[in-house]
Amino acid sequence: SVGENIAFPLRHQGIKSENDIQRVIHEKLAVVGLSGSEKKMPGDLSGGQKKRVALARAIAMNPEVVLYDEPTTGLDPIRADVINELILKLKEELKVTGVVVTHDMASAFKVADQIVMLLNGKIIAQGTPEQIKSSDNEDVRHFIDGRADAEDLKALHRL
C-alpha cells in the first residue's frame, strides 16, 4: 500500500514507534497532496500520483538532498507541471536541495537554479536557465529546440 511504501525507509532506519511512522506517513502525504491515500494500492494510482508517493517516500527521512531521476517522464504536461510545482514547494518549504536528471527542458528551466548539460559524458554547458537558453553552443541549441542534426538523421536515410 501507499502507507507501507512510505513506511519502508522509516522501518529500515530503525524507527519502531508505529505512532511515529503513521505521523510521518500522514505528514508526507499531505505535503505531496495525497492526504487519505495511505491504504491505496499502487495499481489504484495514476502515474502522477505514483510519482508523488515516490516523493513522499523520498522525503520521509527529511533528507537534505533529493535526486529526481526523470520526474516528469510519462506524464501529460499538466501532471508534469504538478510535479515541477511540488519540486519547487519542497525546495522552498522544506529547504530540500534537488538534483534533477531530465530530458524535459521545460521542467529544467522551471525548477533549476543551475543547469549542467552533458554530451558523451562531458559537460558542454553550465549556468543559470537564462544562460543556457542563450547559449550559442550548437549542441545545446539542438537539444533545447529538440532539433535533430544531419548526424542524428543519417540512420533514417538507410531505411
UniProtKB/TrEMBL annotation:
One of its GO terms (molecular function) is ATP binding. Pfam families: ABC_tran (PF00005). Keywords: ATP-binding, Nucleotide-binding, Transport. Residues 1-145 form the ABC transporter domain. The keyword ATP-binding applies. PROSITE patterns: ABC_TRANSPORTER_1, ABC_TRANSPORTER_2. Coiled coil: none annotated. This is Toluene tolerance ABC efflux transporter, ATP-binding protein.
